[in-house]
Amino acid sequence: MCLLFVAWRPQAHYRLVVAANRDEFHQRPALPAAPWEDAPEVVGGRDLQGGGGWLAVATGSRFCALTNVREPGRHMAAAPSRGNLVSDFVRSTQEAHDLLPMMRSRAHAYAGFNLLAADARGLWLLTNRPEPHLRPLSPGLYGISNGALDDDWPKIRRGKVRLDALLARPQPPLDALFDLLADDEPAPDAELPDTGVGLEGERLLSPAFIRHPHYGTRCSTVVLGDADGAMRLMERRFDAAGRVTGESDWTLAADGRVMETVS
Q1: Is the pLDDT of residue 162 over 70?
Q2: The CATH fold of domain 3-260
Q3: DSSP state at residue 54
Q4: Count of Cβ atoms closer than 10 Å to residue 260 Cβ
Q5: Is the CA virtual torsion 35, 40, 41, 45 positive or negative?
Q6: How far apart are CA 263 and CA 248, in angstroms?
Q7: What span, in angstroms and rounded, lies between the C-alpha atoms of 54 and 63?
């Protein structure tokens, strides 16, 4: 993912609300969100180049998503795929507070990443920039892109304000959550961060939704985790022009059943 909003225990009805955009090169092959063939208790997209995932949910109220840290000029050619961190978490049955410290111990081997992971007991941030560290997150609303958690980037700031307003409703409208992710308004130059990609690069990457012939928003994902443990994952996929090419809608019931919603 390149833009991720996570609300942890925001209201009585929902334990978890996630709104996320995956930005990636359009030529990189991937599978749409669905149960994984080799792990049917997991639902999410699948990166066919690296073999892992970018966002996934699993029975047992597990959720995990990853953003890359933008660090131009720093290349780790032999580093393992960061998407494996997502698959390692959602495949496991260990509680997060036991598993994540073990994942932290090998975080230095990967290129820069931020990992947000949750189970029924808590939400955690694992990152390896500037150094590997792990911390639990209190109930609240968080936003992250290709920098640090809650960086004051325009798309993070705008998205958090909009999501906070939606969470004030008893049940956030799904269309409104996807509209938040579809915001393609570039930030004013005066508000752009300096992440080392130059002015044109910062302009291109400044909206929540990115359109470009080679690199852009490939999919938008909404996850709703009920207080009773059920989870619903909805994914909307796009081509290089930003046109919808497909949708997925899956529910993981509290009793472990995985069901597709067919419209």
Answers
A1: yes
A2: Penicillin V Acylase; Chain A (3.60.60)
A3: S
A4: 11
A5: negative
A6: 10
A7: 11
Q: Is the preceding peptide bond at 130 cis, omega within 30 degrees of 0? A: yes
Q: How far is it, in rounded angstroms, from Cα 154 to Cα 192?
A: 7
* Cβ atoms within 10 Å, residue 195: 18
Q: How confident is the model at residue 75 (pLDDT cuts 50, 70, 90)?
A: confident
Tokens coding 188: 């004013």
**Cα–Cα dist 72/238, whole Å:** 26
Tell me the pLDDT tens digit for each residue of 32-43.
999 999 999 999
Q: Which sequence spans correspond to the domains of the chain?
A: 3-260
3-class state of residue 10 by DSSP: coil
Q: What is the DSSP string of 65-131?
A: EEEEPP-TT---TTPPPTHHHHHHHHH--S-HHHHHHHHHTTGGGSSSEEEEEE-SS-EEEEE-SSS
